[in-house]
Amino acid sequence: QQPVQSPQAVILREGEDAVINCSSSKALYSVHWYRQKHGEAPVFLMILLKGGEQKGHEKISASFNEKKQQSSLYLTASQLSYSGTYFCGTEKAYSGAGSYQLTFGKGTKLSVIP
Amino acid sequence: EAQVTQNPRYLITVTGKKLTVTCSQNMNHEYMSWYRQDPGLGLRQIYYSMNVEVTDKGDVPEGYKVSRKEKRNFPLILESPSPNQTSLYFCASSLRKQGRLEELFFGEGSRLTVL
């Protein structure tokens, strides 16, 4: 079952902030975030793990609420280069580890305008 | 250069004509996966493989086959393509580490049209 992302789309002016949310009905072990620009492949941004560990992008931050199975991606002081579609991918928890199956949401289209 | 290579990048075919989309990675990753991307539906997993000779169904496996005879290759086979398999396909690979997946590296995508 796909995680639910919100909002579906957002338009920002340069310098504004945005938050993209990702919610799952399953117990999660990790949450991934990727950005896809038009006509290109998705590119890794960040992994958030159960227990609080994070790995990823220097200028983008995110949170993972294990109790609610929710993650949020925070884009601050947005730049034109932030435009694209953002996907969260969730890895279910299985016997104390990950399930090795990454399920993606439908995406959030972010447009940054001058 | 670390990369995932898919071929062909573009293909137009007709209903029922068997085709194979190849995927190869040079990063010695154990994990490989196929996704299809359709407008408004995001990325949906077709099949994945945790290592050589180990494959499993994703969320939308119907009409597809895969094999993993070598670590670096993970071809996607459409035995009898139908128009509802018209889509953009991505292959991805990753390390498996400490009981979970690391970041996925994606190929450039293969756009398939079935007439």
Give a description of the structure.
The complex is a heterodimer of chains A (114) and B (115). Chain A contains no helices and eleven strands. Chain A is mainly beta. In chain B, a hairpin with a 2-residue loop joins strand 5 and strand 6. The relative contact order of chain B is 0.32. Chain B is an all-beta fold and 115 residues long. Helices cover 0% and strands 53% of the residues of chain B. The mean pLDDT of chain B is 95. At the A-B interface, strand 4, strand 5, strand 9 and strand 10 of A face strand 4, strand 5, strand 11 and strand 12 of B.
What layout of secondary structure does this protein have?
The complex is a heterodimer of chains A (114) and B (115).
Chain A: E1 4-6, E2 9-13, E3 18-23, E4 28-36, E5 43-49, E6 54-56, E7 61-65, E8 70-75, E9 84-94, E10 97-104, E11 108-113
Parallel strand pairs in A: 2-11
Antiparallel strand pairs in A: 1-3, 3-8, 4-5, 4-9, 5-6, 7-8, 9-10, 9-11
Chain B: E1 4-7, E2 10-13, E3 19-25, E4 31-38, E5 42-51, E6 54-57, E7 65-66, E8 76-78, E9 87-94, E10 96-97, E11 100-101, E12 105-106, E13 110-114
Parallel strand pairs in B: 2-13
Antiparallel strand pairs in B: 1-3, 3-8, 4-5, 4-9, 5-6, 7-8, 9-12, 9-13, 10-11
Biggest chain pair contact, residues each?
A: A-B, 27 and 28 residues
What is the helix fraction of residues of chain A, given as a range? under 10%
- Poorly predicted runs of 5 or more residues of chain A: none
- Average predicted local confidence, pLDDT of chain B: 95
What composes the largest sheet of chain B?
Answer: 7 strands, mixed
Model regions low in confidence, pLDDT < 50 over at least 5 residues of chain B:
none
End-to-end separation of chain A in angstroms reads: 37 Å
